[in-house]
Specification:
The complex is a heterotrimer. By secondary structure, chain A is mostly helical. Chain A folds into 3 domains: 43 residues, no CATH class; 298 residues, Cytochrome-c3 Hydrogenase, chain B; 63 residues, no CATH class. Helix content of chain A is 47%, strand content 10%. Chain A has 20 helices and 8 strands. In chain A, helix 4 packs antiparallel against helix 5 and helix 12 runs parallel beside helix 19. By secondary structure, chain B is of the alpha/beta class. A 5-stranded mixed β-sheet of chain B has the order 1-2-5-4-3. Chain B has a two-stranded parallel sheet with strand order 6-7. Chain B is elongated. Chain B starts with a helix and ends in a 36-residue tail after the last strand. The relative contact order of chain B is 0.13. The mean pLDDT of chain B is 87. Chain C has one domain: 3-Layer(aba) Sandwich (Rossmann fold). In chain C, strands 1-2-3-4 form a 4-stranded parallel β-sheet. Classes of the chains: A mainly alpha, B alpha/beta, C alpha/beta. Chains in contact: A-B, A-C, B-C. Chains A and B meet through helix 2, helix 9, strand 6, strand 7 and strand 8 of A and strand 3 and helix 3 of B.
Chain lengths: 443, 159, 158
């Protein structure tokens, strides 16, 4: 079936297809162009090549089970997706998250945000030809991922932020690794400013290309760094503060013209602000209420289960190393005291029958996390803008409808208008500066 | 202060078109008639409410209830920092509603998504066709009566 | 075929040359792309195994690296890209979604790219750590060394 552009194109113009598999490392998207020489007369953007049926799959999974699906939406900043979903559910339940967990969530969000901006600008610069920038930024990202891996166990898709708090407390070495990551990231940012800010080639390719005005950006529903590059001051962290953002000092950088260069500059400055937030959070975070324990000491779980048949076991348990940081003593710091939505601690499960029953009732079908009937919308500031979750609950343990307000869906819908009248070579930095993430765009 | 006003002013202006208003979990919601959508939206977009941004537009399938589908719109006001949710019910036999493309540009793709996944027709949309699924896909995947695993391969698969 | 000394030695040398100069075409779709980028950059380098240079055209590459989820909408495109590649070619399925559909078992996702094209190496993981990727690459190199090199024009049946 001929596409819209094939039907509308003039006979003498050239039709060019930038197919779903193309060198721009962003994801699968198809841009069909109608060209007059090198100048773009008309274009059509086709998305949906990564539509993985996230919303329909979530209707078939329980609230707890669908956490890993949320990781894979905006896969360059996975912890922020987790956070949005979990906070929407906490709004429904009305749970109060402990303060230490809130600070940990802020640190993890900001690390994800830095990693998102690093990847976006690295890909944008590499496609413009600056390969060194790509390698430097990937190096900085590795240090950040080292920090995330130490605490959460995985580099990318972590499922770390849970309903009621976080999965485990910060690793005891966290300050050292995080300090090193911050130092390395600052070094890399300084190098990139030196390489790209006044670089004539980069300026020619990005300044005054794909200018977007404020009214147009608002009409398209843009949010996030792209909207702030046009000069509109809207950041969800400042407009409706969540977690502990109202206690931390940070600025929101704004651009002036709304061209590619401003989008690049806003992201670079935001990374510096995120580093500031992380440093402040590290100072203000409340101390842990229990010291870190040695995992290898204690009774084996199998022996404890057997002994608990006679009487309640009071000895310490040797838990699996996977559960490091999530022991019962830490629960005050990291998880809310709510039986409706928080996994019971393993020590209780292995040592008494009531603990075992509460563990089963949490995971059994038709039991467990059952939010009250109704619907809720909650949004957080993702790497691309306002990431919103709209959850409709009918009182059972599976969501009736889960909808994601994907920020880059609105941003990419403006692409056809943005590139009209420019050259083919201008598409690359424009598309790179929009930070299109396939998993979020197509869900 | 201003939060309560928006629902009350809406009810005052469009008395019978606004079926119910509620505040649940801190979110304001108004259920309106589908014919009144454009008027309500234009009223909200003007000052003093200044809901200049359409955040989201989606649909919920309440299978078994009549009317079956429910359109949900989330609006946001940058100056007042206020969110509002507007819902309208659509019966299955008459599954069409006015399009908001004349007011906001992102409604174009959002409505294409709802058309693709639910089958809702939007009157006045310039280019209503599928966006996520491919040509030749039959059915509307996100409806509750479409099975989750019903695959329609585009090319013959091996094994 | 009955091996004479010259042909087996020639086979061996051709295998050695082919395995240490792999040009790959990264067919990147989803989250695994991030780990692909990590594996290709400074910390975990695939360039030291000879596979560093990315050729962004199927005609110039001999390894198709399918990274991430392949949906039903994308399946004909993958088939076309595979058919455009010239012999000899190898296919590596990177990530669980490419191996078997991953956690997505629904109307939109192909359950493994071996339903579309023949695959040589499967690298599991969601996403696989860069060390796993390097392990997979080394296994591919061993496979290339051992296999019957196509130095006479032979039609591969699949």
């Amino acid at each position: 079936m001929p596409t819209r552009i094939q039907k509308e194109a003039r006979k003498e113009s050239l039709l060019l297809n930038m197919g779903p598999s193309h060198p721009a490392m962003h994801g699968t998207i198809r841009i069909m162009l109608e060209l007059d020489g090198e100048r773009i007369l008309n274009s059509e953007v086709e998305v949906g090549y990564l539509h993985r049926g996230f919303e329909k799959t979530c209707e078939a999974r329980t609230y707890f089970n669908l956490l890993p699906y949320t990781d894979r939406l905006n896969y360059v900043s996975p912890l922020i997706n987790n956070l949005g979903y979990v906070m929407a559910l906490e709004k429904m339940f009305g749970v109060e998250v402990p303060e230490r967990a809130q600070y940990i969530r802020v640190i993890m969000s900001e690390l994800s945000r830095i990693s998102d901006h690093l990847t976006c600008l690295a890909a944008m610069a590499m496609e413009c030809g600056a390969f060194t920038v790509f390698l430097y930024k990937m190096k900085a990202r590795e240090f950040i991922w080292d920090v995330i891996e130490e605490t959460t166990g995985a580099r990318m898709t972590t499922s770390y932020i849970r309903i009621g708090g976080v999965r485990a407390d910060l690793h005891p070495n966290c300050r050292t690794t995080l300090g090193k990551a911050i130092v390395e990231t600052r070094k890399v940012l300084k190098d990139i400013h030196g390489l790209l800010d006044k670089n004539k080639i980069f300026l020619n390719r990005t300044k005054d290309i794909a200018v977007v005005s404020q009214e147009k950006a608002i009409s398209f529903g843009w949010t996030g760094p792209c909207l702030r590059s046009t000069g509109v001051y809207y950041d969800v962290r400042k407009a409706s503060p969540y977690l502990v953002y109202d206690k931390l000092n940070f600025e929101v950088p704004l651009g002036e013209r709304g061209d590619n260069y401003d989008r690049y500059m806003v992201r670079m400055k935001e990374m510096e602000q995120s580093l500031r937030i992380i440093e402040q959070a590290l100072e203000k975070i409340p101390r842990p209420s229990a010291p870190a324990r040695v995992m290898a000491e204690g009774m084996e779980p199998a022996a404890a289960i057997k002994a608990s048949r006679e009487k309640r076991v009071e000895d310490r348990l040797r838990l699996s190393p996977n559960l490091e940081g999530s022991e019962k003593e830490r629960y005050n710091d990291i998880l809310a005291a709510s039986k409706a939505c928080v996994v019971p601690p393993k020590e209780d499960t292995y040592t008494s029958i009531e603990g075992l029953i509460s563990h089963f009732k949490f995971f059994m079908r038709d039991h467990g996390i059952r939010p009250p009937k109704g619907e809720v919308y909650f949004s957080v500031e993702g790497g691309n803008g306002e990431l919103g979750y709209y959850i409709v609950s009918d009182g059972t343990d599976k969501p009736y409808r889960l909808h994601l307000r994907a920020p880059c869906f609105h941003i990419v819908s403006a692409l056809e208008e943005m590139i009209q009248g420019h050259y083919v070579a201008d598409i690359i930095p424009t598309f790179g500066s929009l930070n299109m993430i396939g998993g979020e765009l197509d869900r | 202060m201003e939060k309560k006003k928006i629902l009350e002013d809406l009810k005052q202006r469009f008395q019978d078109k606004v079926k119910e208003t509620s505040v649940q979990f801190g979110d304001e919601t108004a259920v309106i008639d589908k014919e009144a959508l454009l008027d309500v939206v234009n009223f909200l977009k003007a000052k003093p409410f200044a809901c200049t941004m359409l955040l989201d537009l989606t649909c919920v399938d309440h299978i078994g209830q009549e009317p079956r589908f429910e359109m949900v719109y989330h609006l946001y006001s940058l100056s007042n920092k206020q969110r509002l949710r507007i819902k309208c019910r659509l019966p299955e036999k008459e599954l069409s509603i006015d399009s908001l493309t004349s007011i906001w540009k992102n409604a174009n793709w959002l409505e294409r998504e709802v058309f693709d996944l639910f089958g809702v027709d939007f009157k006045g949309h310039p280019d209503l066709r599928r966006i996520f699924m491919y040509d030749g896909f039959e059915g509307y995947p996100l409806r509750k009566d479409y099975p989750l695993r019903k695959r329609q391969p585009r090319i013959p698969l091996r094994d | 075929m009955e091996g004479s000394f010259i042909t087996t030695k020639f086979n061996h040398i051709l295998g050695w040359a082919r395995k240490y100069s792999l040009f790959h075409y990264p067919y990147v779709t989803a989250c695994c792309g991030m780990e692909y980028m990590s594996a290709a950059c400074a910390h975990f380098d695939i360039d030291r195994f000879g596979a560093g240079w990315t050729r962004f055209s199927p005609r110039q590459s001999d390894m198709l690296l399918v990274v991430g989820t392949v949906t039903q909408k994308l399946a004909p495109v993958l088939r076309t890209v595979y058919e455009q590649m010239t012999e000899p070619k190898w296919v590596v399925a990177f990530g669980t979604c490419a191996v078997s559909g991953g956690i997505y078992d629904n109307y939109a996702v192909v359950q493994g790219i071996d339903q579309i094209i023949p695959v040589d190496i499967y690298i599991p993981g969601c996403p696989p750590r860069p060390e796993t990727v390097l392990n997979g690459l080394i296994k591919l190199q061993e496979k290339i060394q051992k296999q019957e090199q196509e130095w006479r024009w032979k039609r591969r049946r699949y």
